[in-house]
Amino acid sequence: MKHRLASLWRAPVFCLFWALCTALAPQNDEDAPEQPKIDFLYPLDATPNVTGSFGGYRLSHHHAGLDLYVSESETTPVYAAADGLIYKLRQNHTGYGRVIYMRHSDGYSTVYAHLSAFAGQLVDFAQKNEAEKGFHFESNPKVRVKRGEIIGYIGTSGTDLIHLHFEVRKDGQPVNPQLHGLHLKDTKPPEITRLYLKPKAAASHVFQTHDAQIIDLRQQKDPIELGGDVDLAVAIEDHMEGSVRQLQPRRFEFYIDGQLRHAVTYDQVSYASKKETELDYVAELKAQKQGFFHRLTPEGPRCSLHDKQGKRSIRDLKPGRHRAEIVAWDASGNEGRAKFTLQVTPQKDQAQWKSADLKKKSALSKKSSYVYRTPHWFNNAMALPITACAEGEPILLTLKREGKTLKKGLHITRVQGELAAVFDVSPDGGVYELGSACPGQDAIWQGVITYGVKNKKEIDAGDVSFTFDKKAFAVPFATALDVQKNPGCQAPCELEPASDLYLFANAWRPAQGYTDIGIKPRNNAESLAVYFKDGDRWWYLGHHEDERHYIHGSTAHPLAFALMADRTPPQIGDARVENHPAGPRIIVETFDKGSGVRSATMTLDGQPAPAEWQNAYKRLVLLDLHHLTGRHTVEVTAKDFEGNSQTRTQEVTLP
């Protein structure tokens, strides 16, 4: 009995003690990052300057580390971030370029990429591999280093800017370094700045138009009027002490009426998910230099970084006002919020109209005419400009697909201030014809040939064929081709036009499976290839010829393409010697104004030299690891993508 009374007396004390311990213990929050057991040193002897976020947009993958910047010099040393074992060196002209892989305790490893040179004990391994394999090699040195030991120098190998790509991996997977032992000062909360809205169906609108709009949430006080199926995306700017570039948040959440709609967390990325960035970011806005916008509504399947909960579409919102909020956090826990109101309203036709049985007559008839106007595309919808009728008169409209009149789904909207008829397009494609007229006037007909895109289905469009990769995301959908006169390229470009210019509609759907483009040449001219037109620049895509004599290339986005001819060899500049902490470097600028340099090789005194090709700077760089002095003979041979070749021999003097 006495023992039982003692137990009863101790029970409340034990419960209080247990409750206190539970309150003080870390909570099991699935969103909370794992607490690291390792403390990483900032790997550069400079004030931290982060220019690329973990999880940021890249063309085919989410960024797997942090980009760290110092200056445009390749002489800044790179330090081991912790005690560890260097287990792999790799050297290549592309990808990570010259890179070091290091293991640490507790399942952690670090990666140091884009180096200009290795240092310390690694130099001998690099020399040995270069002597046996040339510049491209992979080695497993098993070298132990201490925290703070110099292992290399910052550079631009394999990339386009001088910086260090620093990566932390936990059990082989890239994780956010700021959540796993790399401590960076950051007191600035993310700022939710702009909202992107774009109608994606005929029965959709933003402020009763079909114009895509970007709204500054910092100034928007009135409700944002929309309706139907609308794309939403948000720009979130994050900044950090010492860093001049805009960074991305660690996590953000999107709420409507207090209900979670969408959330993304950039804590860990997977090498197995290399084509998901455009399910997360809006690539079209980045290409237009509008910045980085995160999708808030779906386009294709979920990205692996998206939370599984939440209704991402807004089609289910009932008419009326809805409270919306976006909350964002950076890796240091700083929080930013933006609140706004969505006003859901039905779509209103912007002009009086009625369906009519307009007859399509011969183009030679005085009673009708056939014109072509460039359509506006909105994912699953197309809008064709039409002429307004006099006040009080309805616009008469007839819409046909494959010759069959469509009775439903036609609306009158405004695009860029102009009246347009908008309708949904079948993912199977087809020929659409729109007839419009004012009462008592002749009908005007417009026609658009659309093509249904499916995975691994080749589309034959006459002089052009195209096939989407079998792993494309946002298919099936419809596209169309606009054929224009090839404007050629501006000097100093040395490409010659060899076909019309073909522009694809719906080009920014996030297919992300590479698209094969085939173009039939006007004649059997040599040195032809498929090029992508980007403003005034032309980018080489490929020159494979099939049995039908189509010339093929591939791209992630079907935008504007043409066949171009390159018959001019690369140019080779003067060789010069430049000092570097790892030894003097021989630098030879090599560039091509046509298809671009495909390969550039160097010999030193008649022997093959392991020179690095720096594509961003259009130059060959030979890092002298053999302590040579005096005069030497350098010979450079460069070939472009069409096989045109140039060789130049020069003398240099090493100190």
Structural category: mainly beta
* Sheet of most strands: 12 strands, mixed
**Approximately how much beta-strand content do the residues carry?**
35-45%
Global Rg: 30 Å
What oligomeric arrangement do these chains adopt?
single chain
Task: Describe the protein's architecture and organization.
The chain is mostly beta strands. The chain has 4 helices and 51 strands. The strands form 9 sheets. Strands 23, 24, 27, 28, 31, 32, 35, 36, 37, 39, 40 and 43 form a 12-stranded mixed sheet that branches. The protein is flat and about 90 Å long. The N and C termini lie far apart (96 Å). The relative contact order is 0.09.
Task: Please describe the topology of this protein.
Layout: H1 2-24, E1 50-52, E2 66-68, E3 77-79, E4 84-91, E5 99-103, E6 108-113, E7 117-118, H2 122-133, E8 137-139, E9 143-145, E10 150-153, E11 164-170, E12 173-175, E13 191-199, E14 205-206, E15 213-216, E16 224-227, E17 230-237, E18 251-256, E19 259-265, H3 277-280, H4 283-287, E20 294-295, E21 320-329, E22 335-344, E23 353-355, E24 368-371, E25 376-378, E26 381-385, E27 395-401, E28 404-405, E29 411-415, E30 418-424, E31 429-437, E32 443-453, E33 458-460, E34 464-468, E35 477-484, E36 495-497, E37 501-504, E38 515-519, E39 528-534, E40 537-542, E41 544-545, E42 551-555, E43 560-566, E44 571-578, E45 585-591, E46 597-604, E47 607-609, E48 612-614, E49 619-623, E50 630-640, E51 645-654
Parallel strand pairs: 16-22, 23-27, 24-32
Antiparallel strand pairs: 1-2, 2-11, 3-10, 4-5, 4-8, 4-9, 5-6, 6-11, 7-10, 11-12, 13-15, 13-17, 14-16, 17-20, 18-19, 18-21, 21-22, 25-26, 26-30, 27-28, 27-31, 29-30, 31-32, 32-35, 33-34, 34-38, 35-37, 36-43, 37-43, 38-42, 39-40, 39-43, 41-42, 44-45, 45-49, 46-47, 46-50, 48-49, 50-51
